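Tutorial, part two.
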Amino acid sequence: MNAYLVLNKAAERLIRQFEGPYRLTARECEGGAWELGPGVTFYPDDRGDVQPGDTCTMEEAEVMFRNAIRLFENGVRDMVTVELSPNQFSALCSFAYNCGLENLASSTLLRMVNLRRWDDAAASFGMWIYATKNGYKRALRGLLRRRYAEACLFLGYDWTQACSDDAIALQVKPPASIPGKDEVVYKTSFRDVLAVAYHYPLPSLEDDDFFEAVNPPLVLEKTAQEASPVAGAGSPGATQPSGGPVAPTKSTSPASVVPSPAVAEKQASTVAPASSPAAPVGTKPLSPNTVKPAEVPYRINVDAGLKPLDESNRAKGYWYQQAGIGVIRLGTLGVFGSGAAKVSSTLQGDPVLSNMVLTVVVLGGIFVTGYVTKKYGDWKRKKAEREATQALY
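Running the prediction step on this input gives:
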């Protein structure tokens, strides 16, 4: 299963972005592991894990990186029992690179993936924001950004704007004593992240101008005290919370990618609006009930195109609703009075009975017809909404 899939260029860009420049001297990450290069905690040979004081060259760091990627690709293939898209597979590899295969194996994320509950799986990335060291589970904004970025990649969106340093907030309350865990008071919701990310679908894998906008692996020497809050490759310190996590404090964040001019121009042309777009001057204002596609209560694939209104079961259900309401209203206004009069004329010898027939049989029948028609429209529309995958025009 998924034997043909490998980490794609988007995921490699994500890993390099959040790991930052290469380190040629071992440093201790927030999870307590020692790492070299782009956050790799183990060697490709029998030397085992990186130790304090270890060093490497740029070439050796790149070999360690490629070896780690292959290991995590194989691990994801072994754990996943359903077919994945390249972006889904690569997002899981990126997660394993940062959190470790053992953590992936025990995660809600993997369980949702194997159940094909893609939306729930994407939301599960955001649970893994803790780095554990010496009994202290610390919630980190850098990890929250990284998890949301992986979730965007999982769903096929570019994360650059949605997960920018200013876009993600985390507020925590430290534990009263150690061992203990930060309590999350507030964090930016994934729903808000997705509302921005859907404006930036990832381009095709052949778009080299976009995917090759990765900084060269510059050297960054840091001490343990200056270490970035993002744990390294396969860090055993990463944990999935059983519940809760930090205000918009200015914590150290991973280095950002500087895009090439071609990428900068492409991103500038697709900047997400801060709010719903305004109608052009001279046209009818937008409805106050306008929502973004990511916020509709049923699943819409924004990449599936728009379907004509007259082919939509949602629209047909709406028409039945309105027809039923119309029948009820017209009946109460006496529009069907001619039919009632014919019935009444056959009973002129008994005016009381005539009025009863007029009221109960004719008007009651009209009301029941309209009511049944409207209820059928309600059912048809709700059923169509649950099954809808395309927006309408």
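The first helix runs from residue 9 to 19. In part three we will examine how such features are distributed along the chain.
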